[in-house]
Amino acid sequence: MCLALPARVVTLVDALNAVVDLGGVRKEVSIALTPEAQVGDYVIVHVGHAIGMIDPEEAERTLALFAELGEMNEALAQGAQP
Amino acid sequence: MKYIDEFRDGEIAQRLAQRIAAELQPGRRYSFMEFCGGHTHAISRYGIAELLPEAVHMIHGPGCPVCVLPIGRIDQAIDLALNRGAIVCTYGDTMRVPASHSLSLMKAKARGADIRMVYSAADALKVARTHPEREVVFFAIGFETTTPPTALVIQQAAKEDLPNFSVLCCHVLTPAAITHILNSPEVAQYGTVPIDGFVGPAHVSIVIGSAPYEGFAEAYRQPVVIAGFEPLDVMQAILMLVRQVNDGRAVVENEFTRAVTREGNLAAQHIVNDVFEPRDHFEWRGLGEVPHSALKIRPAYARFDAEQRFGLQYQGVPDHKQCDCGAILRGVKRPTDCKLFGTVCTPENPMGSCMVSSEGACAAHYSYGRFRDIPVVAA
Fold first, then answer.
1. pLDDT of B125-152, one tens digit each?
2. Is B165 helix (H, G, I), strand (E, B) or coil?
3. Which residue ranges of chain A lie beneath pLDDT 50?
4. Three-state SS for B266?
5. What pTM does this model have?
6. ipTM score of the complex?
7. Touching check for B360 and chain A: CB below 8 Å?
8. B65/A1 CB distance under 8 A
9. How many Cβ atoms sit within 10 Å of the Cβ of residue A21?
10. Inter-chain contact B265–A30, Cβ cutoff 8 Å?
């Protein structure tokens, strides 16, 4: 029910609507709830409405956190074999 | 797709699982409730349950709006379509929820009721514009994620002064339900499960922010980690919960920082506050009457309130006697503990609401997990 997907804003139709691209599929959605959305931004689309924005820097930070895990696990494995 | 594929990487999931295992304290059990059906679905679909160490135990919560919708509310919608001549528009998920007299919205449609599945609340408004001679009711369900679009269509209907459009509002609130699981009279009836922390809502939190859970975390000494709905988000949140438990902390942390802020979406909150106000209480399937857990339409928009327009009175209806949805929604029982699971109750023919939506605990286990229950026997 709370299904929502990140989609890229392709064009702003008017102040309240935009066309978004979702893995190649284009669709017009309402941006009344995310008035700050600009072309190129990623919005989170739920039942035909953008309900929020993706912060690309925060997404990178989360992914970087995953990358660090590899190093932590390697250190752990080395620690187990003195 | 960007921002999805990166968060489904199997190798990183393995690494996260190793990390979780490495940080567990020996001899300790960790029980976490994922509140949202979206998380329940991810845990079943991506095999997260298998990746986790034995000592980490996930309990499915009641965060599936379809699952917690009580029979009495669906009866109201069916009555409007079947006996009052209204066109009822609703999201696809609600169509198959079992109601009284062996009916569902789908079966009522087969009996001739004019019930239409819509993708967006705005589509319901279009139906009202196209049929000015008919009453059109939007049967609105959902958590805070889905509420702002409903508020927008009510504002729009007011702007256009649409005389034939109304909303049967069944929008419910997440923080009230989370609190209720730990603190309600029914706990005595169903018993309770030990919970060491919560995986907090993803898309609900985009709208309301992370702040509304802070009071809960403090008052009940429960760690909450808000997580996205992708598998790596869930795994990372579990790791963060393990760390909080180990450190004896109970605070709200946010794993889903790419979409959730502390304040949430203020534009959406403003629109919701303009149209809706809290209800004193609302019946949830499985949780019973929960105080201040739902929204109703403000008097300023009363003419778009289907309950007032049609003089609807709410009548509670008990669930099927054998159905364990109540205990399952509280995490006290697992889907396989229910006698009806996989026998008379299947996704094709659901008896209880947890089998209806793909986010329901029973439907998720039926679709992705039921073969795990059968031991592998060599031929």
1. 999 999 999 999 999 999 999 999 999 9
2. strand
3. none
4. helix
5. 0.92
6. 0.91
7. no
8. yes
9. 16
10. no
